[in-house]
C-alpha cells in the first residue's frame, strides 16, 4: 500500500533541503533571468543597422528615393557601393556586409512600363534570426518608397501586383525563423534544463552521502520516494515559468493570446515530466557527475530537435521521431499555439496527451530501475 | 520455530559476482540478548546485518526475523527493526529535530511531536534541536543516529560498528543506553572491532571470510579457543620479545604496557619459550588465563594465515 504519510515525509524533507541549499535555489532563479537576458537582449531578434552593400545599375530618381527609404527604415546601413555582382557576393561571403541589394539596369523604365523589374535582396541568412527581420521589412520598405510614384502611374498598373518584384535570396540558410519564437521557446528550454538537472541528483546524492542506506531500511516504498522527491520541485518550475512569462510580457512584449488554464495544466504536466526524466537519470547514474553528463545528453537534442532552434517541419524523418519523443517538442507547440496564436484546450489537446504518455512511461521505468535493496 | 528467538536464520548466503561474501551462515539470537559480531574488515559482518534487515536479498538460506520470513517479508521486518549504519546516514542539512521527524514520519508514528520531544530530551539535545545534524561532533552524531533508529521503538536493533571513531566516554554512554534497551527486552545485534565493546555482549560470533568460526557466550570464548598463556614482566622487554620470536611455537604475542602476553595452543612450546627468558633482569613469569583479546588476536591471525577452513578445524566448535 502506498502511504500518503510517507510521501509527505519525503516531500517535506526535500522541501527543507531545497530551502537550505541556497546556491542551488539561487541558480534555479538565476537561470531564467540569465537566459532571458542572453537570448532576449544580447541576441537581438530584430536587428537594426545591418551593414549593406548596394549595386546600382540604374541611378534615376526612383532608385534614389528607394535607397533613402532603406536608410530611413534603420534596418539597413549602406556601407558600400559595388559595381558588380561578384564584388557584392564576395563581400557577403566574407561577412563584411549582411545584405546585398541590386537594382537592375533600366529599373525606372521597366517600372514605368509595367514590366515588373526585379530588385534583388541577397541576405546572409546563416544566422536566420538576424536575417529574418530586415527581410520581412524589405517588401514593406519597397512598397512605401514607390508609393508616390505609383500614384502617377497609369490606372492599369495600380491595384494588382506591384510594378516591381522584390526577389529575396536567403543565402547559406534557406529556412528563416521568426523572432517571436525565441522567448516562448525559452520557457520550454529553461524548464527542461533546470528541472531535469534538479532531480537527476535526487538519488545519487543520497547514495554519495550514504543516506540511502538508512532511508531504505525504513518501510518507505519506491513509489513513495519517487513522488516525494519529484513533486516539491514543481513549485520551483512554476516560479521559473512565472519569471519568464512576466519578463516576456513586460520587457519583450510577448503576447499571451490564448487560454490560461489549459496552458497552466500543460505547463505543470511538462514540469512534472521533466522532473521524472531527471529522476529516471538518477536511478541509472552512479554519481552526481554521471547524472550531470546524462542531463546534458538529453539537453542537446531538446534544444536542437525540438523546434526551438530549427524549424521542426524542415527536419528529416528520423530527427522528427526523436523530437516527438521529447516532452519539450510538444510543450513548445503548446506554448506557441497558446501564447502567439491564442489557442485553447481543444487546439493543444493533441500535444498534451503525448506529454502525459511520456510521463507515465518515465515513472514506470524509474520504478523498474529503482532497487529497494543495496544489491 | 522457537518463539523466544528474535533472529533464527540458517544457511544465509550472499554472493557478489563470483565472490561469496557470506557463506552458509547460521545464527540464533534470543530475545533481549546483546549479540556481538566480531571479525576482520571485509569478513561479511555488514552484509549479514543488511540481509537480516532486508536491505540485501540473500542468495540462499532461510529463516525468520521477529517471526517473519527473512526472504519474503522484508517490508514487515523493516517496520520493527532499527538499523544503525556504519557511516552516518542522517541528513547533515536537516536539523536534529527535522531528522527525527523525518524518520518518525516514515514509520507513520502517532503523536510524532511528543515522541520527538521525548527523544530529544533523553538525548540531552532538547535545546539544540534546531542545530543542523551535520555540525554535530562524532559522538553526538552517533547518539542522534541511535535515537533516530529507536524512535519507532523497534524490537530488534542492528548496529554496524556503531562507535567507530567515537571517544571512550561517548562509547561508554552509548553502551549504557544499549544495555538499558536490552533490559527493556530489545534485542541487539552489534558488529564491532573493539574489545571493550565485545565484553559488553552476552554472546559473540566471530566471522572471517564469510564464515562463522566461533559462536559462544562471551565468557566461554577464551576457553573454547583453548589458549594457554603466560604473562612476562621484565625490565628488558625488547630483548624478551626478540628471544620469544626466535623461540617461536606460540600463536599470540602482545604487549600490555610493561608486560608481554604470550599465548598459544601448544603449552609445551609456551613453557619452553618462557623458560628461555629466565636470565633476563627483573624477570617475572606468571601463568594467566588467556583473555578475549588474546583469543581474538589468535582468531584473526589464524584467519589471515589459514583462510577459514583450516582454522575452523583447529578451533573445533
The tally of beta strands of chain B, per DSSP, is: 14
Of all chain pairs, the largest interface belongs to:
A-B, 27 and 30 residues
**Averaging pLDDT over every residue of chain B, what do you get?**
86
CATH class categorisation of the largest domain in chain B: Alpha Beta
Overall geometry of chain B comes to globular
Mean pLDDT over the residues of chain A: 82
What fraction strand of chain B?
Answer: 25-35%
Percent of residues in beta strands of chain A: 5-15%
Order of strands, main sheet of chain B, comes to 6-7-8-3-9-10
Biggest sheet details of chain B: 6 strands, mixed
Which regions of chain A contain 5 or more consecutive residues with pLDDT less than 50? 172-179
**What is the domain total for the residues of chain A?**
2
The share of residues in helices of chain A is: 55-70%
Major beta sheet of chain A, specifics?
5 strands, mixed
* Alpha carbon gap, first and last residue of chain B: 24 Å
One letter per element, helices H and strands E, the order of chain B comes to EEEHEEHEHHHEHEHEEHEHEEHEHH
Shape of chain A: elongated
Question: What are the main properties of this structure?
Answer:
heterodimer, A: 375 residues, alpha/beta, abc type-2 transporter like fold, 2 domains, 16 helices, B: 317 residues, Rossmann fold, Alpha-Beta Plaits, 6-stranded mixed β-sheet, 4-stranded antiparallel β-sheet, 14 strands, 28% strand, globular
What features would you describe in this structure?
The complex is a heterodimer of chains A (375) and B (317). Chain A folds into two domains: 4-43 and 179-369, no CATH class; 50-171, abc type-2 transporter like domain (abc type-2 transporter like fold, 3-Layer(aba) Sandwich), CATH 3.40.1710.10. Chain A has 16 helices and five strands. Chain A has helices at 4-20, 22-42, 61-72, 85-94, 107-113, 128-152, 182-200, 202-209, 211-216, 222-230, 232-250, 260-284, 288-304, 317-325, 327-340, 345-369, and strands at 50-56, 76-81, 99-103, 118-124, 165-171. In chain A, helix 2 (22-42) runs antiparallel to helix 7 and helix 3 (61-72) crosses helix 6. Chain A is elongated. Chain B is an alpha/beta fold and 317 residues long. Chain B has helices at residues 45-52, 74-80, 96-106, 112-123, 138-150, 168-183, 195-198, 221-225, 237-247, 267-275, 292-306, 309-315, and strands at residues 5-16, 19-30, 34-38, 60-65, 68-69, 81-84, 156-160, 187-192, 203-208, 211-217, 228-233, 252-256, 259-264, 284-289. The radius of gyration of chain B is 22 Å and the shape is globular. Chain B has two domains: 5-220, P-loop containing nucleotide triphosphate hydrolases (Rossmann fold, 3-Layer(aba) Sandwich); 222-315, ACT domain (Alpha-Beta Plaits, 2-Layer Sandwich), CATH 3.30.70.260. In chain B, a hairpin with a 2-residue loop joins strand 1 (5-16) and strand 2. The A-B interface holds A 3, 5-6, 8-10, 12-13, 16-17, 20-21, 209-220, 373-375 and B 50, 53-57, 75, 78-79, 81, 83, 85, 87-94, 98, 102-103, 105-108, 132, 148-149.
Amino acid at each position: 500500500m502506498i502511504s500518503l504519510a510517507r510521501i509527505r515525509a519525503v516531500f517535506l524533507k526535500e522541501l527543507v533541503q531545497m530551502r537550505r541549499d541556497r546556491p542551488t535555489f539561487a541558480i534555479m532563479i538565476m537561470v531564467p533571468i540569465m537566459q532571458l537576458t542572453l537570448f532576449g537582449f544580447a541576441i537581438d531578434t530584430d536587428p537594426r543597422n545591418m551593414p549593406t552593400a548596394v549595386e546600382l545599375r540604374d541611378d534615376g530618381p526612383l532608385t534614389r528615393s528607394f535607397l533613402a527609404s532603406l536608410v530611413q527604415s534603420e534596418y539597413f546601413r549602406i556601407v558600400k557601393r559595388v559595381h558588380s555582382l561578384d564584388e557584392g557576393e564576395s563581400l557577403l561571403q566574407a561577412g563584411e556586409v549582411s545584405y546585398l541589394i541590386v537594382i537592375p539596369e533600366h529599373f525606372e523604365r521597366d517600372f514605368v512600363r509595367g514590366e515588373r523589374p526585379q530588385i534583388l535582396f541577397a541576405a546572409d541568412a546563416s544566422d536566420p534570426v538576424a536575417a529574418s527581420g530586415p527581410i520581412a521589412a524589405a517588401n514593406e520598405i519597397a512598397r512605401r518608397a514607390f508609393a508616390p510614384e505609383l500614384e502617377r502611374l497609369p490606372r492599369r498598373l495600380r491595384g494588382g501586383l506591384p510594378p516591381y518584384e522584390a526577389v529575396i535570396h536567403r543565402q547559406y540558410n534557406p529556412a528563416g525563423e521568426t523572432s517571436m519564437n525565441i522567448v516562448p521557446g525559452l520557457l520550454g528550454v529553461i524548464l527542461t534544463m533546470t528541472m531535469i538537472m534538479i532531480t537527476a541528483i535526487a538519488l545519487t546524492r543520497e547514495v554519495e552521502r550514504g543516506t540511502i542506506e538508512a532511508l531504505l531500511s525504513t518501510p518507505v516504498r519506491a513509489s513513495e520516494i519517487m513522488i516525494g522527491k519529484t513533486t516539491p520541485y514543481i513549485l520551483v518550475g512554476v516560479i521559473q515559468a512565472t519569471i519568464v512569462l512576466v519578463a516576456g510580457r513586460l520587457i519583450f512584449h510577448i503576447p499571451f493570446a490564448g487560454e490560461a488554464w489549459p496552458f497552466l495544466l500543460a505547463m505543470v504536466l511538462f514540469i512534472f515530466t521533466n522532473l521524472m526524466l531527471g529522476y529516471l537519470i538518477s536511478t541509472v547514474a552512479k554519481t552526481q557527475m554521471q547524472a550531470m553528463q546524462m542531463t546534458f545528453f538529453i539537453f542537446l537534442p531538446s534544444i536542437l530537435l525540438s523546434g526551438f532552434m530549427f524549424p521542426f517541419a524542415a527536419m528529416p524523418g528520423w530527427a522528427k521521431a526523436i523530437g516527438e519523443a521529447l516532452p519539450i517538442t510538444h510543450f513548445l507547440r503548446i506554448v506557441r499555439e497558446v501564447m502567439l496564436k491564442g489557442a485553447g484546450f481543444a487546439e493543444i489537446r493533441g500535444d498534451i496527451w503525448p506529454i502525459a504518455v511520456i510521463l507515465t512511461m518515465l515513472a514506470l521505468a524509474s520504478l523498474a530501475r529503482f532497487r529497494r535493496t543495496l544489491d | 520455530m522457537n518463539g523466544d528467538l528474535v533472529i533464527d536464520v540458517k544457511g544465509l548466503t550472499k554472493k557478489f559476482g563470483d565472490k561469496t561474501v557470506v557463506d552458509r551462515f547460521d545464527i540464533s539470537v534470543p530475545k533481549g540478548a546483546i549479540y556481538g559480531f566480531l571479525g576482520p574488515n571485509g569478513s561479511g559482518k555488514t552484509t549479514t546485518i543488511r540481509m537480516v534487515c532486508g536491505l540485501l536479498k540473500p542468495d540462499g538460506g532461510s529463516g525468520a526475523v521477529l517471526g517473519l520470513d527473512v526472504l519474503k517479508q522484508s517490508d514487515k521486518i523493516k517496520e520493527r527493526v532499527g538499523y544503525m549504519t556504519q557511516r552516518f546516514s542522517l541528513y547533515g542539512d536537516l536539523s536534529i529535530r527535522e531528522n527525527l521527524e523525518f524518520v518518525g514520519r516514515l514509520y507513520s508514528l502517532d503523536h510524532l511531536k511528543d515522541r520527538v520531544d521525548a527523544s530529544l530530551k533523553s538525548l540531552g539535545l532538547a535545546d539544540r534541536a534546531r542545530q543542523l545534524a551535520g555540525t554535530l561532533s562524532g559522538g553526538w552524531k552517533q547518539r542522534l543516529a541511535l535515537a533516530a533508529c529507536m524512535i519507532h521503538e523497534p524490537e530488534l536493533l542492528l548496529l554496524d560498528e556503531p562507535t567507530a571513531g567515537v571517544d571512550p566516554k561517548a562509547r561508554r554512554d552509548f553502551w549504557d543506553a544499549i544495555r538499558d534497551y536490552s533490559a527493556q527486552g530489545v534485542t541487539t545485534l552489534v558488529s564491532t572491532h573493539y574489545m571493550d565493546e565485545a565484553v559488553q555482549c552476552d554472546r559473540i560470533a566471530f566471522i572471517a571470510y564469510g564464515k562463522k568460526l566461533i559462536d559462544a557466550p562471551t565468557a566461554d570464548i577464551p576457553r573454547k579457543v583453548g589458549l594457554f598463556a603466560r604473562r612476562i614482566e621484565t625490565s628488558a622487554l625488547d630483548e624478551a620479545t626478540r628471544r620469544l620470536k626466535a623461540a617461536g611455537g606460540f600463536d599470540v604475542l602482545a604487549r600490555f604496557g610493561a608486560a608481554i602476553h604470550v599465548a598459544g595452543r601448544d603449552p609445551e612450546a609456551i613453557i619452553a619459550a618462557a623458560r628461555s627468558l629466565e636470565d633476563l633482569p627483573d624477570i617475572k613469569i606468571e601463568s594467566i588465563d588467556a583473555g578475549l583479546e588474546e583469543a581474538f588476536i589468535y582468531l584473526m591471525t589464524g584467519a589471515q594465515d589459514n583462510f577459514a577452513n583450516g582454522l575452523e578445524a583447529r578451533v573445533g566448535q
